[in-house]
Amino acid sequence: MIWKQWRVIARRSAIYLLLWWLLADGDNSSWWVGVPAVMLVVVLSVVVLPPVRFSWAGMIRFLPFFLVHSLRGGVDVAWRAFHPATPVNPSLFEYSLRLPPGAARVFLVNMVSLLPGTLSTGLSADTLQLHVLDAGNDYLAELVAVEAGVARIFGVPLQAAA
User: Residue 138 region, left (φ>0) first, then alpha (ψ -120 to 50), else beta?
Assistant: First the structure.
């Protein structure tokens, strides 16, 4: 079964070997531990995380949006920390996910926490629970844009909102 996925195994092996080499600062004496560790991780990763579609073009298109919003989020949080008079109106709300279950949804949940003033607090069925710093901001538009970007990255269609 695993051997039918030789391309995935080869790609992951190359990535994990490169990561090992970087973590070991290029020390060749570490390979006696690194190669068996990488082999074990590759096999486990293929079993636990089956291959998913991934679009580098989608990622490249998503990256500027994400970087701008992450920077804006960092500046906003810093501003609120150093200027206590800035209004904070925290709230919890739920967002109906349109991404199908799987890696794309997990990626979205993690990306949302890096946006300005948002934190993913829970995931159940097709609903993402969020904590926001200021309920007056338009988080819904950002969430819709992030979800569409993630759908392009993973090449999955968005479902109708529940």
Answer: beta
